[in-house]
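thought: fold this chain, then report.
action: predict
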Amino acid sequence: MRTISDTVIFSICLVAFVIGVHQTMTYGIGHAYFLFMISIALLFLYRYRRTKRKEQEQQAKPAPKKKKKR
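observation:
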C-alpha cells in the first residue's frame, strides 16, 4: 500500500525532472544540474522507502505451513 508521503515524494521528483529538462533546453545543462540532482535524490529516497515497506510487509506475513509427506 502506498502512503501519501511516497506519492508526494515521487510527484516532486517528476516535477523537478520536467523543470530540469525545460531549464536545459532554455539555458543549458549548467543551470539545470541542481534540479536533476534533486530529482535523482528524491527518486532514490522513494525507491528506498518502497523497498523497506515491502520488506516489512514480507516480515508481517505468517510463514506458510509445510505439508508433511507420508
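thought: worth noting. The first helix runs from residue 4 to 27.
final: C-alpha cells above.
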